[in-house]
Amino acid sequence: MSLLGILEGGLFALGQVLRFPVMFLLWVCVASACFMAGTCLLEYLSRRKERAGFNIKLWLKEVDVLKPNAEKLSSLPGFLKTFVANVQGIKEAGQLKDGGLEHLVMEAEEGLKHDLHPSKMLIKVAPSLGLLGTLIPMGVSLAAMAAGNLEAMAGQMVVAFTTTIIGLACGTGAYAINILRQSWANQSIRELRFIAERVLAETEDKAL
């Protein structure tokens, strides 16, 4: 056997070795997509309940952010309530100035963006695994066709096309989830920046 034949045979064997991990990871993608869809649904229901009738502009008109009463604070959505509590914490610690508030805002924004990483990764990984799961059985299918085994060829073709469908479906689902969660993150970022600007204005007024 020539060196080229050995190299080609080795690559074919390596491709078949990758078959099990690719199929396993596709199942991981399916489980991840289902988990993300479930958590997204729960978050949607939670946000709908928390934000019923809530308007950040009206809330800020009625409240001193640095000294909100318990009733007004409880009307905030969970994420903003945590942010306001953190603002009050750094104020009491004397760290509100000298970049303390800016650091708190950036930290909150990074936390929101970090939550988007799993869906972003699945958007790219799932279709790639689907393509790998397509091409690997295709090699076996072509070998079976060359040997005249049409039944084996048909079976491998079914596996190949099924993995493509699964990979694309997971990627599409992850994209839809990412778009929805991105819109929620953008809304929360706008609101916390609005609150931060009000905190700075209140701080300057008290300094005067």
Features:
208 residues, mainly alpha, 8 helices, elongated
Structure, explained:
The chain has 208 residues and is mostly helical. The protein has one domain. The protein is built from eight helices and no strands. The model has no long low-confidence stretch (mean pLDDT 85).
Inertia-based shape: elongated
Number of distinct beta strands: 0
* End-to-end gap: 89 Å
Count of DSSP H/I helices? 8
Broad structural category: mainly alpha
Strand residue percentage: under 5%
The count of domains is 1
Question: Care to give the gist of this entry?
Answer:
This protein has 208 residues and is an all-alpha fold. Helix content is 85%, strand content 0%. The protein has eight helices and no strands.
Question: Which SSEs are present, and which pair or pack?
Answer:
Layout: H1 3-17, H2 19-50, H3 56-62, H4 70-74, H5 78-92, H6 100-114, H7 117-146, H8 150-207
Helix pairs in contact: 2-7, 2-8, 5-6, 5-8, 6-8, 7-8
